[in-house]
Write a structure and sequence with these properties.
By secondary structure, the chain is mainly beta. The chain folds into 2 domains: 2-141, PRC-barrel domain (SH3 type barrels); 149-205, SH3 type barrels (Roll). 12% of the residues lie in helices and 36% in strands. The protein has 3 helices and 19 strands. Strands 4, 12, 13, 14, 17, 18 and 19 form a 7-stranded mixed sheet that branches. Strands 1-7-8-9-11 form a 5-stranded antiparallel sheet. A 3-stranded mixed sheet has the order 6-5-10, with no helix packed on it. A hairpin with a 2-residue loop joins strand 15 and strand 16. The protein is globular and about 50 Å long.
């Protein structure tokens, strides 16, 4: 099962892009993006002990860069997470008028998550979602993880997913679950992937140890 982390950033697909004209549409998108500026961002990447940990919200604030062409494509419209494999699955580079015309790149096309940008190997990694059935399916589902209620398998409410920690390869380290108090936000509880029981309208996890 794959779900989408939805972020409120949308890059338009050029007018006239249709699934029946995928080659022409991708060429138009490449032309549309060709005026992008070189990458110049610099942000600190958080670390926990000796292991790299990058939050999904941090990735959503980075620019996507086509390394081969040296083009900065702007921030991702969405980041799509596979919650069966607990890993980053796709980066949505440009949101289309419909899921079919949305432009995606598989996470495997990213050179690394450790820099201050999301570096794609090149524009050749971009494709319209209707050409990738897995990407199209999760785009149509449109269910966001951040903000999702979290309960234990005993029915206890733990709060909501506030963020997700990933390693440098895009695998989930922890789901951060936070409960709001009266006039304050309480410390996040970290839920590792092996404690997640199911994900649907809510995330069900193992009961925390006392």
């Amino acid at each position: 099962m794959i779900h989408a982390l939805l972020v409120d950033r949308h890059c338009p697909v050029p007018p006239g892009a249709r699934p029946s004209r995928d080659v022409a549409a991708l060429n138009g998108i490449r032309f549309f993006l060709s005026g992008a500026r070189p990458d110049s961002r610099s942000e600190a990447v958080p670390r926990y002990g000796d292991a790299m940990a990058i939050t999904l919200n941090d990735l959503a604030d980075r620019d996507v860069v086509a390394m081969a062409e040296g083009l900065q494509l702007g921030r991702p419209a969405q980041l799509l997470l596979d919650v069966d494999e607990h890993r980053l699955a796709y980066v949505v580079v440009a949101a289309g008028a419909t899921p079919d015309t949305t432009v995606v790149a598989p996470a495997s096309a990213l050179s690394s998550l450790e820099g201050d940008s999301l570096g794609l190997h090149g524009l050749a990694a971009l494709e319209l979602a209707f050409r990738d059935q897995a990407a199209l399916l999760l785009l149509r589902r449109g269910l966001g993880l951040v903000g999702m209620p979290v309960v234990t398998d005993a029915g206890e409410e733990l709060g909501t997913v506030s963020d997700i920690e990933l390693d440098a390869q895009g695998s989930v380290i922890n789901y951060l679950v936070r409960r709001s108090g009266v006039g304050r936000v309480l410390r996040a509880h970290r839920v590792p992937p092996n404690e997640v029981r199911s994900v649907g309208q809510v995330m069900t996890v193992a009961r925390p140890a006392d």
